[in-house]
Each structure stands twice: as C-alpha cells, then as structure tokens.
User: Fold these one by one.
Assistant:
Number 1:
Amino acid sequence: MGTEIDFVIEGRASNAASTLTVYTTRPDTLGGATFLVVAPEHPALAAITTEGQRAAVDKYVKTVQSETDLGREEQDRPKTGVFTGSYVENPVNKAKMPVWVADYVLAGYGTGAIMAVPAHDERDFAFAIAFDLPVVSVIDPVMVRADAKDKTDFEKRRSIVAIVENQAGEILTINWGPTLGGRLTIGGKIEGNDTAKSTALREIAEETGYHDLELISVGTETVHYKYYAFSKRQAHDTDVTFVHVRLKSDARKAADLDESEKGNFTVEWVSRETAEREITEPLHRYGLEKFILGHSYTGPGILVNSGRFDGLDSTEARAAITEWLESKGIGRRAVKYRLRDWIFSRQHYWGEPIPIIHCPNCGAVPVPDDELPVVLPDIEKYEPTDTGESPLAAVPDWLNTPCPKCHRPARRETDTMPNWAGSSWYYLRYMDPHNDREFASRASLDYWGMVDLYLGGMEHTTLHLLYSRFWHQFLYDRKLVPLPEPYAARRGQGIVLAADGRKMSKSLGNVVNPTDIIERYGADALRLYTMFMAPYEETTPWSDERLNGVARFLHRVWTLAGDLSSASFVTPDSVGYENSLGAFETQVDRATHKVTKKVHDDLATMRFNTVVSSLMEYVNFLSAPDNRRRLLQENARGLRSRTLRTLLLLLAPAAPHITEELWHDLGESGSIHVAAWPTYDPALIKDEIVTVILQVNGRVRSNVLLPADVTEAEQAEAAAADPKVSRYLQGKTITKTIVVPRKLVNFVVRD
Ligand SMILES: [Zn+2]
C-alpha cells in the first residue's frame, strides 16, 4: 500500500505533461523530498526536459539503454543522472525541487518516477551526495536501548555525540573495555544555554585533550534516545544532537577527567573498518552510520520540517499525509505490484536447456515437440566459463544441429534456466514422477491436490513464492493443473541474529558456527535451542545463556530418566514410605496427559518454542524432590514406567539422539522414532481438578481430587465416602460439616 502524489511541473519544455505522478510507500517523508527522479524510459521525459538540457538528457538515455534492470538496481553502483531543467513544488513546504533523470529508477517500479528523500532512503542519499543535492531530515529517530525497555522513571536531558575524524580519516574513540561499555565516540550533556557545538568542543577537549578542531556539520536531526546509565542508576530520556568535527592538528593538552573516568578508558584513533566492527552501542552506532559510513535513517520516529504534520509519529503520518493529499486532490492511495525480472544470467551446466534453435535464415525456431525434452550432453568440464557463456557452448556435437524448418546448419540455444525455474513447479512432478508423456497426469494431480505446507524465509515472498505461483497460475490458465493455487498454507521462519542483535556476517565477526555448538553442547541441545529461542516466525538474537539453559534441561532429563529407570527404589520399610500413592498418581497422570495434548497441538501448529517450554515445566514437576521421592516408591512402578516412556516419546522429535539412547536404556529394542505417538484422555484433562483436604475434628485424614466446578454438597459427599475419612465417622454423630469450596471439608463429630 502506498500513495501516488501529483507534482505540478514548472518550466517544462512543452505542454505535453502538466503533472508528474510519483509513487511512494513513504508519504510520511514527503517534507524531506528534495528532488524528483524519473526513469530514462519515462514516457513524459521528453516533455519534461527543457531545451537547454535536451542534448545532455538524450545522451544519457542512450548510455542507459545498454544496461540491464538488474544491474541498475544494485545498491552499491555509482550513481549517474542528468538534470532535466524542470522543477516541481513540494506540496508540504512549497520548496522548489529539481527533476532529474537517473537509471537507478526503473520504469517498471511504481509510476517510473520517485520523490527522492535522501535523508531517509539509501539510494536517494547516495545520489544526493554524488550531485550535491540537499538532504533534509524529516524524521527525528526514536530509539530505546534494551536496558531502558522496562524503565519508567526517566530523567530528561539534552546531550551531544561528537564524531571526530582526523586528516587520515581515522575516528576518535574512547575505549571503555568490554565490561564497561566497549568502544564509543564522544558523548556529553548539554548544560544550560550551551550550544551543541560548544558542548562537543568542550567534551572532546576534556575527555581526550584534543582542542584544535574544525566543525564539519551539526546534524539536523534530534535523536530521542532512552537508555539506562548503570553507573548513576538512572534512566535517561535524552534529546541528542550530533556534531561532526575534523581535527586540524595533533595539538593536545591534558585531559580534564572526573575521578570516575580516570584510568577507566583509553583514547584511541581507529580505522573506519574497526569503528564499524566495534562500535555497537546503538546511539554511537547511529552517529557512525550517518556521518561516517553514509547511511540514511529509514526507521521510525517523529516528524519535523513537515509543516502541519510536525510532531506526528511517522506511522500515523503515513495515513495523515495521504488523507490530506486526497482532500487537496493532489494524491491518492494506490497499490502497485512489482514483478522483478528474474536472474537468468548466471549460467550453470545443469540448468534446464531452453528448447530453441537459432537459424541464420529463420531466426529463433522452437525444437519440434517430438524431439523434446532437450537433454544435456555428457561432458567432462561443467565449470562456468570466464566469458559468462554457458559451458554448453563448448560442446560442438550438441551445439550444432540442423534447423527444424530449413534444415540448414543452425545452433542450439546455450543458455539454460537457473535452478529456480525448475523449483517453481517441481512439486507437480513429484505427483507422477515416472510419466513419460506429460509432467503429471490429471488423475495424479487431482488425487494429490495442493502442497500442504510451504516453508521458507521471508525473502521468498518476493522471489520463489511469487514466481512459483506465477508459474502455477499460467498452468492453471492453460487448464493443465486442477487448482489455481499451488500451496494450501505457507509459514515463513524468522532469522537468527547474532548476539549483538545484528545480522550474522563474516565481516562483523559475529557468526555462530553450528559445528562449534554441536562440539560443545551436542546436536540435541542446538536443535532444542533453535526450537525454543523464539516463535517460529520471529527474528531473534542468539543467546549463549539460553543455550546453556537448554543444555541444563537435557542434563535434568538424563538424570531423571536414570533415576526412574534404575532398579534401586524406595521400599515399604523406608522412612516416609506411603502405602498408597492416592491422589499423587492421578496428579502425575493428569500432568502427563496435559503435556501430551499440549505438545501434540503445538507441533501441529508449529509452536515449537512452547513444545519445549511445556516439556521443561513437566520435567520440573517430575523432578521436584517430593514428587521424585514418590515416583521412586516400589508401588509406583507402573506410574514410573508410563510417565518416563511418555516423556521420552514427547521429547523425541526435539531431542532425537538423547531420547533414542534413553529409550534403549529402558530395554526397548526398536527405535523411539517409529514407536507409537502417545495419546491423551480428553476426560482426564477436561476440567481443572482441585485437591480438597479432608479433616475430621480439625485433623487432616486424607485428600481427594475433585473437578473445580464441584458443588458444596458433592464435595461433602465425596469427603464422607473417602475410606480414610469414613473410618473416623463410623458410629459417630456429625454435628457440623464445614465446607471451604474447592479447598477443604471438615467434619465435626461426637460420640
Ligand atoms: Zn532455418
């Protein structure tokens, strides 16, 4: 969902186009639009271009014609473009905005024209830097550091973060060491009427001694930052201004430090690469990204420099600005679909051949049906070539073939389809793999129907999923498949981030290697932890601490299973031995049936994290000292056996190795993974059961398990029927029956 906005073109060359319609998904950033960009293929380009700029624009469009869309979309390529000579007016702040033509805007995206918001879009930012166009920040970031998320009592303050470069492009940092806060740039509080600039210069001098400095820029944004200052035991809500400074000379005087600072940090100049790797504190990271690494801010925040919309939250502003544009008749809500050209450029030997023959006389001729499929030749060398040409081009026997039309010498198409072409519809072939006349018979397609579940990362939403649906719907339109959709359900899995909350990447050195984890903790612990770490769809950071917790749980299972399956148990002559397990047995069975239902249901709905957590609770319950003692009694033999078996069966899908081993320790010969899955008795878990204490003349004689909705009369009746209680009632007169609902029954009796 986005917004289309009409910009009135001023100073245009002809009357052919009086407005230029742009499409944006970020109408909240309209105030920060400082120029418009149209695609070189835009139909109105000729009309927009002024006579003075026409030659330059025409020349530019010509150079772009040789480029591929894919190349044009690459994030890091140098930005090119030409001014059209025309201007438009920004509806929010009436600023005059130049209209450019540039190849990073594709004709197929939106309307083929974009409003460029360099402060909040990476590519627009790179373009603005390349052509010295204005950058106006319109969203003041709102950031909350993890340690302030649960805090309520915030102290308001204003502060600065200073980013200091020297002539060699190194960054001035303060290294507090790993335990005190890591590597930071310079920060400080703005006092009284001081400015951000004067505060920055003072703080740099006090903390590092450097004082021969020149200002590069003061950031136009205010970052609203909440964090917890551990040393002061105080949560801060601070409005931060960034100051970018350059060192003019190495002149340095003694630093002027607080007692708390002395000796606790070192002042260090580091390369950009080191800074990028080591500065992770979110606020200082923001400064580094914005002022050194050249990234724009694309997150949420509060609107500024946006006229009547100032102060709105950026999410609210998206709707508010669209409504306002609609009321003025210069904008409207719009949905644009975007289908990207697929990569058919990477040539592998093993792709599917494209059944086309190129003839010098007839052009591209399809391979006749009775010669299909075109089969790949057996070759020695299947590596990709240096030229980007398919390895097939080097196999003349296969390559050269007569033209099916004129029978003169011709050549086969050597490009093959990339792997994804096949993966767009291979699932259909599984339904009838030995059919040599069609990809699958209608009978098989009718029988198997849709794929039940499609799993994949979110990146597949605009790639594989999109294309395979496209492929499938084409086949459906040709009446070759019975159903319009290929998949009955889809689930996307989250991403495991590094412990620092960033994406794992080799260059950041924050990658967790599964083999290392398996070496230390075992494959079961790793598997169990990835199931447990978060809901399946959620993206979540890695945590060694929680991995340890999962490993401890497996140790607890191991110990419990060893105890419960050992031959040494508590016999009737032992101290504390209970002749009857009574309510305990029901209590354990109820817990077992409850966890069975929970694991069963949660596996079916892929709530793997709660599968693990409910098994953890169950094991905690069984391991509680009192419960474990009772389970080890001689008379609990049957209970012990069925409880342990069920636990292992339920845990088996999550921890396949340890459960298989323990299963065999129980004397089982087959694999646990083919043993029958435990069932549960719905009656046993239907109602919440309560334990009611039974007393006679105030002395506890027994207890009984009853449904939570038991009436007082039923409660008294059940109490009187209990054999241990009825013994004390025999031949006595009940003078009073005290019933505390769901808790207690006390019979007051006399002879
Ligand atoms: Zn021919």
Number 2:
Amino acid sequence: MSIKKLMAACAATLLIVAACSSASGTPSAGGASPGGSTPPAAAACRESADAGAVAVSIKDFSFEPGAITAKVGQVIAFTDTGSAPHNATLDAGGCATRTLQSGQSDGLVFATAGSYPFHCSVHPQMKGTITVGA
Ligand SMILES: [Cu+2]
C-alpha cells in the first residue's frame, strides 16, 4: 500500500472515530431508558461460533485487515492463520473471541452500530478497529 493511500485511510478512520464520539459521547440527560443502568459497551457484542459473513485472519502478529467493517448482526469470523495463540478482545471490554490456536476460528456479532477498537490480549500490541454500521 502506498504512503498516500495509508494516510488517506488513517484520515478517514479518524473522521469516523471523531463523528462517532461526538454523536455518542454525551449521554442525554433525560434519557428514555426505562430500566436505568444498561452498560453501553458491555452489551455491544457477543461471541459466536457461526459461519462468518466477514472474515478476518489473525497473523503473527497482526489482524488482516486491521480496519474491519461489518453490519449489525453479521458474524465477524476471526481465524488464527499464524502459529501463536491469538484472540480479539474489545478494548472497552464486554466481549472477546476465544483464544484461538493455529487454524481455529471464532466470531463476534455486534448488536449496536459504532466503532470498536480491539486488541489481542495475548499480544496487546496487536490492534485493530471494527466499524459496525446499521
Ligand atoms: Cu495475539
């Protein structure tokens, strides 16, 4: 990938992140949530072993692609194509794939649109972002 394309991709990601934070950053005062305390990030996704609509391969030591796009309800299937154990864990917590051995797969499904940074808890330097659209 050329430097210019990389820069453009980064700028686009930043814009998306900025847009998301300004949209969801301020909890509305008179919020219409009738049960009160719903943890926002925690319920955003769940693990799923179903066949994936979006495929991500986990290499030693990066996610390919690192910028993942999916829709609400789509299974994002992570496959460990490296030789080390890896997983995908949301930075904000709430959900994660199983820790995968070489050749294994596990998925995540999101219930809420948004931008979700994640990492591998075995190798915290491995990072990526899942952008979920409605
Ligand atoms: Cu890893």
